[in-house]
Structure formats: C-alpha cells, structure tokens
Specification:
heterodimer; A: mainly alpha; 9 helices; B: alpha/beta; Rossmann fold; 2 domains; six-stranded mixed beta sheet; 12 strands
Chain lengths: 272, 266
Amino acid sequence: MTIVREPMWDDAPRSRTQALSRHLLQFLSTLGWTARILVSSVAAFPSVLLRRSGRADFSAQLYIVGIRTLPVITVVSLFIGMILALQVGLELRRFNQEIYLGAAVMLTLLREMGPFACGISLAACVGSAIAAELGTMKVNDEIAALEIMSISPIRYLAAPRLLALIVMAPILAFYCSVIGTLGGGIVGSTQLNVFFQQYISSALSIADTKDLFVGLLKAGVFGMLIGTVSVAEGFGTKLGATGVGRSTQQSVIVNFLLILMFGYMITRVFYR
Amino acid sequence: MRKKFEVQGSKFKVERGGLSKLIEFRDVVKKFNGVPVLNGVTFSVEKGEVLCVVGPSGTGKSVTLKHLVRLLTPTSGSVIVDGVDVATCSDAELVKLRDRIGYLFQGGALLAWMTVAENVALPLEECTKLPDREIAVRVRHALRAVELVAAADKYPTEISGGMQKRAGLARAVVRESDIVLYDEPTSGLDPVTSITINRLIKKLNKELGITSIVVTHDLQGALAIADRILLLKGGKAVECSTPAEFTQSQNPDVREFLAAMKGETI
C-alpha cells in the first residue's frame, strides 16, 4: 500500500456543506487507511521474521519497547499499587477486613490497572516516539525515498514496531501487576499493619487464570492499538516540524482514549 | 540529428530524429485545492538526455518530478515513462518502473540511523538477492563515483549538506538505474561543491548513458550540463531548447528569467 498520500480533492470546497461532508469523508478515509496499515503490517510479520534485516529491526524494537521503558513502567506500577493498597486498605480497616487487602490489590491489577498502567506508559513513551520518528521521516522525504526504492515502509518500518509492541505489552502488563502488588504489600505492611506474608497469600489465593489471561489479552490489544495509531499518525504527518508536533500529540491523545474505550469493552465481554 | 521546436503558449512539440522518447508529459494539469500548479505541461525527454528544468520558485518544478514516480498523480493529462502510463499502471508495473528510476531528493533523504555506506547499500539489500560481497563492491563503486569513500562509515548528521547530497546521489544510482531524477541537487551548496555535483551528473550521463531530469535554480550549472533546458513559468512550459538556443531565445519569459538570473531588472 502507498504511504505518501495525495489530498482527496484537487479543488476547493464550494460551500460549507461540501466542506463539512469532505471532512467527514476524510475522517472515514483516514480510518480505513489506518485499518489497512494494521492489516498490511500483520501480513508483513512473516517477512519481518524471515529476513535478516527484519529480525535485527524487530530485536531493536523489542529493546526499545521492553527495556528502555522499564524504569518508567516500574515507577508507575509501583505507585499505582501503593495508591490502590492505601485507598482500599483504609476502607477495609473500617470493617476489620484488612486480610483481604492482597486479594483486592491483585485482582484490580491483574484485571485492569496492570494492563492500563502498561498501556498509558507505552503510549506516552513508545507511541509518541514512533509518531515523532516516522513523522520526521515523512517530512524529510525519507518515506517517499523508501517507496521510490520499492522498499515498503509498512514492512520496513511499521511491521517491526507493531510486532514488538504486541509481543512486549502483555509481558510488561504482567510485570506491572507484579510490581504493583509488591508496592501494595509495602504499604500494607508499613502503614496498614498487614503482614507481608499474609498479604501475598491473600493475593495468590484470589489470582485466577482467567483474570491473568484477560489482562494479558487486554495488554496485547493495547499494544496493537498503540502501534497502529502511532504509525498511522507518523505516516500521515504533513506541514513540517509543526506537523510532527501535532502528530505526536494526536497519537498520545488517541491512544489514551482508545485504551480507555477498549479496556471497558474487553472487560464487558469477559465479565458479565 | 534533426531538431524542431514549436512553442505555442504552454505547449510545444519536440522532434529529434533517430532518438526515442523515454519520458513524455502530455498536457499535464495538477491542481492543489483548486489552484493549478501545473497547467497543461507537455514535453518529452529522450533516452540518454539530460533535461534541466528551470524557473521561478513555485512554478511546479518539483511537482513535475514527483509525477514521474507517482508520488503525485495528474488532475488531467498523462505521464508516460517508456510506454507506461505512470498514473494508471498497476502496482507491479509501478514497482518495475521505480526499480529503473533513481531519485535524488533536495535534502538527500538519507536514513539517520544508518551510515553513508549502509544507506547506499539499502536498496540492494532490501530489493535484490545479491550476495553481501557483490553489494559491498557496488556500494564502494558508487561511493567512489561520488568521491565519498572516506565518509562511508559516517552518519548523515556527521557530514556536510553537499556530502549528504552526494551520498543521496550514490544511493540513487547504485541500482544501476537508467533514469535519475534530481530535485535541486545544488541548492544551498557552495560554488565548488555545486560544480562537483554538476560534473558528477554529466559524468554519470556520459559514462552510463543515464537519462536525467534535473530540477535546478543553478542556471550556470544547467547551461553546462543540459542537453536541453525547460523553462516552467506559472505552471506552463514556456520554452524547451538547447542551452545555446535558450540563451539566444527571444521569448520574453526566457529573457526575463535570464535577466533575473543575472541580477538585472527589465
């Protein structure tokens, strides 16, 4: 598929109604184009893994997504776990039910907050970087140069990034849940008089395979959304440096919104 | 060789006995937001020819070039490369066509995370099944042609603008393309580097028979390297002639352009 796109209309709109309808059509066209980026990238996954240069790019992206974001994700998930434990623990103490603190924190993290913390961290750290990088390449004619050399930007740039996000997001979400649970344990043992061992046994007693897999699925979907939106925003960049800034901002906003919406929808499907 | 140029407003016919037309623009109109940037451009380029496209800024020179590789498609009219209509051909035909065309962008368009040599090797590594040793030989040969062997292991940000353009040129020709499109290859460069690049374009044309279209503001360079010069003004082709004919032309647009280039006022 072609990445360097022309405007849909050569002439200026003749009326406000026409301008409005063109905006709507443009929006729908962009949605379709983004979906095509996702489908074409997924179709290019085998090519990424089979080619030597593709494997090298994929490994580099795994490092960027998985390792370089670890410090941020660790801090975010640790504090989310601590806040959760504090808020829930204070309420449980009113009913003398602190022993369930571990279960409450673990359940919330596995089902919702682990994938969510992972998703927002990846959208902020990785998604924005992808949009900015590809956007800069677009305005510097590097994407056009690749197309002219018959090197598909989808296979060469989009697919390794998307694949790395889909692979790493569930792993990072699980990591978030573990770190968050530990953070909750620290708060429980230091401020709520819950023994750490008791907290961990309560947490493990509630941990369910379904919760784990739904959480991992959610994270995988978030990874796919972040990759697709960020790549599409980067490839769609126009108007030089201003356009790069706008694409980066837009990718973060759209990713945050989609993470919330899809998070709800997946929960609704699995927990009725 | 018989040459006949007939200029009628924006259109002219070119006939050069014995040579085949490799590239043809047929009454190409390109509008952006209702405003025509190209307004009925017709010209042709013969195999092995160097055509320099000159004209004031905003007259559609780079837009003309982008039509040849379908980065843009015409609002009306057609662009034909070796018998293939670029705007309507299939994706497979487009890939074949692009394989024959090298394109030098204004800024070089080198990938920042790769060294100069890796950038030049990229089209060979990604689009051919050549062994690594053969790729290395071809890359070295291309870098030698643009006098950049010493900078092979440097990154684009570590070399000057002129060197980046030369690296872009090496990448454009490394696949042994028979058509190379140059988008302002000497803009922003000092006179010495400009002369070096112009010499390279001529050398590649003479030694490898590469058909070249050079979009440029450098009139002296165009006069030195072009077989013909095409003047675009207001989205129309107003003159297409040999350098000698161009400088002697009585076309008022050409006189105005030449005077402006010399810093005179009319």
